[in-house]
TrEMBL record:
<protein>
    <submittedName>
        <fullName>TerB family tellurite resistance protein</fullName>
    </submittedName>
</protein>
<dbReference type="InterPro" id="IPR029024">
    <property type="entry name" value="TerB-like"/>
</dbReference>
């Protein structure tokens, strides 16, 4: 399966909406991730208005799964408030991606809400790999 950037963005949109409100910072991150992946502003706005149910993510590569997880956690922290519903959603998606749900707590301490603050992604990826269900 080819990694579908719109499907990834849809997961982020579902996370952003999990607390019933897409904050402005969350919307900006979704737009910047979408634009960086060649998705138009109009398409992103349409996706925000009508998020689709999350599709099967089991056939993604380990790199793609990690990227999904990283962006999910970054988005969860984007508005400066982390709601329990967002954590639960991240844990559910982590499990769908093939991780133990405890990966969210482990790596979220290393992921910054501000995308301009660069985290050591290789270190975080190594930590996350320990939580993959084999």
């Amino acid at each position: 399966m080819i990694f579908d950037k719109k499907a990834e963005l849809n997961v982020l949109i579902n996370l952003a909406a999990s607390d019933k409100n897409v904050a402005e910072k969350e919307s900006k991150l979704i737009h910047s991730i979408g634009k960086a992946n060649g998705i138009s502003t109009e398409e992103i706005n349409q996706m925000l208005k009508n998020p689709k149910p999350i599709s099967n993510v089991s056939s993604l590569t380990e790199d793609e799964k990690f990227t999904h997880l990283y962006y999910l956690i970054q988005l969860m922290k984007m508005d400066g408030q982390v709601f329990r519903s967002e954590v639960v959603f991240c844990e559910q998606i982590a499990e769908k991606l093939g991780y133990k749900k405890s990966v969210v707590a482990e790596i979220s301490q290393h992921v910054y809400s501000d995308p301009s603050i660069t985290a050591d992604r290789d270190m975080i990826k190594k930590k996350a790999e320990k939580f993959l269900v084999k």
